[in-house]
Amino acid sequence: MTCRELIRRASESFCAAGIPDPVNDAALLLSHLTGRPPLALRLDEETVLDPSVIDSFKSLAEKRLSRIPLQYLLGEAPFYGRMFRVDSRVLIPRPETELLCEWALELLKDRSSPRILDLCCGSGCIGISLKAELPSASVTLSDISPDALDLAAENASLLGADVALCRSDLLEAFSGTSFDLIISNPPYIPSADCDTLQEEVLREPRLALDGGNDGLSVYRRIVREAFPRLSPGGFLLMELGISEDEAVSALLSDYGYESIQIREDLSGIRRMILSTHP
Q: Does 71 map to a domain?
């Protein structure tokens, strides 16, 4: 069977199963096995694939049909120009979170040796990216999940990022420590909505998704616990769930944060919120 024919057959099965972007997924799975670019494989009507490759592809395709996320099958996901290892221990990095990194870099561009905490770090994609872009920064990755921290450590090693790692239930482990930036993509989906998510998202760690009854439980703690751990003029920068901007803004304002700003993602969703310690 040729590359193009195998991709065609798999994409038809994916489409019938309701998998988004079926041709792209099929081509990426075959690219993962062959090392060839996905577009070249989609156009290749001549190369006859080895039966062992076909068997391996079919195994991956069956897993994709069971709605295991593509990134977990590939074992990696792109983020801010780098590839990060991902698996079921962590949330898959999303493109909108790259905008959070861009905002952080804007904020810190004139600060020498800033102290950064990536809170709820998961794969470590935010903190490791900031360290790569700001080599003089002191970056700490923190998560309550030891499994997530293990994977974050792998990514830091693979990408040559000299970062600290700390297991902590939010900011409990950082008493007496101050940061110039605390950045976080926290769990923010209301508990009742977690069971109604896309099937692929249901394969991701619930701990990284569930934000409590109203989706704001983790924000409440972060707002309270981050305040004494920010240096004067330090920044708290967080990703937001859909329609949570007003509620989180009120939490920040009530606690005494200043200069609250909100930015939209590329879809026009109010996705990020910044506040400053007075």
A: no
233-271: pLDDT as tens digits: 999 999 999 999 999 999 999 999 999 999 999 999 999
22-34 vs 51-65: helix crossing angle, rounded to 10 = 140
Q: What is the DSSP string of 59-83?
A: HHHHHHHTT--HHHHHTEEEETTEE
Domain count, the chain: 2
Handedness of CA 8, 14, 16, 19 (dihedral sign): negative
How many whole angstroms separate alpha carbon 34 and alpha carbon 133? 32
CB 157 within 8 A of CB 165: no
The Cα 31–Cα 70 span in angstroms is 12
Contact 80, 125 (CB under 8 A): yes
Other CB atoms within 10 Å distance of the CB of residue 78? 13
Q: Which two tokens stand for residue 156?
A: 């830091």
Rounded distance, CA 14 to CA 4, Å? Answer: 15
What is the pTM assigned to this prediction? 0.94
**What range defines the domain where residue 134 resides?**
89-276
172 burial level (CB within 10 Å; 0-12, 13-18, 19+): exposed
β-strands 76-79, 82-85: how paired?
antiparallel
Alpha helices of 94-216 — where are they, by DSSP H?
A: 95-108, 125-133, 146-158, 191-194, 199-202
Whether residue 185 sits in one domain with residue 146? yes
How open is the CA angle 258-208-31, to the nearest 5 degrees?
A: 115
The DSSP secondary structure of 197-210, one letter per residue, reads S-HHHHTS-GGGTB
What would the pLDDT profile of 143-161 be if each residue is shown by its tens digit? Answer: 999 999 999 999 999 999 9
